[in-house]
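hiii, so i know i said id send this last week but things got crazy w the move. better late than never?? heres the sequnce for the chain we talked about at the cafe, plus the structure i predicted for it. fair warning i was half asleep when i ran it
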Amino acid sequence: MFITDIKRVIDQVSREKGIDAAILINTLKEAIVSAARKKIGPRADIEVHYDEKSGDVEVFHFKEVVEEVEYSDSELTLEEGLEFDPECEIGDSLGIRMDTEEFGRIAAQSAKQVIIQKMREAERNAVYENFIHKKGKIINGIVQRFDRGAIIINLGQAEAVLRPREQMPKESYKRGDRIRAYVLDVLEESKGAQIVLSRTHPEFLVELFKTEVPEVAEGIVSIRGSARVPGVRAKVAVSSIDSDVDPVGACVGVKGNRVQSIVQELRGEKIDIVQWSPDVARFVCNALSPAEIARVIIDEDNQSMEVIVNDEYLSIAIGKGGQNVSLACEITGWHLEVTSEEEYSREVKEGYDSLMKLSSVGLSAAELLFKAGYSSFLDVLDAIPEDIAAFLDISEEDAQAMIEEAGHLLEDERERARAELLQPASSQNTDIYVDDNAGDGETFADVEDGPDEKSEE
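okay and structure toks below
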């Protein structure tokens, strides 16, 4: 046989490369068939038998017994067939055992190349199969090298890539450092499986909690949402299926030991653990902690809320660069607008004043309209008469008259604005002083306070 001790080779490759022995055996068979056809012809019907116990390989060339041979690589005459089987007849298929040495040096080299190629393919497939199940999990590796900002990490059987956008800001590594990361994706490509890692993905934070908090790993405490500004701040919403287990306390740990382990892994990233609630208003208030919320105005149709906080808590609720409110939006799934009580009171007053420009709207009606989402008479202009009638308990005719009046108010305001733009310069009380001693064409303008120093010369 052109491959010495094939059983030993298959066993060794299977063990070292983690490739199923059956795949290698099939690869060997395909390689022998390919080599035989190169030697005999493309129509040759070749069968390869491999004994898994002994490692012996037998190759059979099947030919059909015919009266007249047209294709010598797949047919033979009855006379030739009788030499192999005295009982053969026309139409029979004879399996002729072959001596693999007949393939020659070129055929053997071709078989070797096919085996190498197939083994590489099998190795790539094995890597993909081994790691596709680890997608969405945390994995450990060693920094091997750097490639244009990306970090190439050795995982033992394979290499993974940590791209620049998946790296934590201000985080640096050197060759040989151990690293933990989240398996973001496992891609099956022509060059082999590409394992993509991340340390910035919100799910990396979730998986770290599963590692550090037994209650999370066991499913007693659930993580309902997570959001991050990598390396800076994160929020995690948690709930518990056991009334005796405080989900926030379980995640924080005794003296904060559990959450501190995660903070250290994330290089000091501040983590807010908040109590999830089925009451979305309560959940939003928890998500904006440590700010104290005065009131919440909910717009369910647009899934948005206006959150009013005490004036001294406004900056805390918004957070540095808007981080606190932005993260709260992510974990709640609601659009949040944070306003101070002073600003809200001013908006309410302006809204009431605007609504009360309508002759039929008094203070109580303005309050009803404002609570219904009509913050000025302009909103009334776009309203449906039926809605206004329902809110104020009036007839649809009166509601239509109110809408028409809002249109007249809008036109009046536009007319006043146009008049102010067209107001002549003389109405601005500007006096012109002419200096007889000035050069030709020089004049000096001054307002009501009188001429300036230059005009008095």
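btw Residues 14 and 21 are 5 Å apart (CA to CA). thought thatd interest u
miss u guys!!
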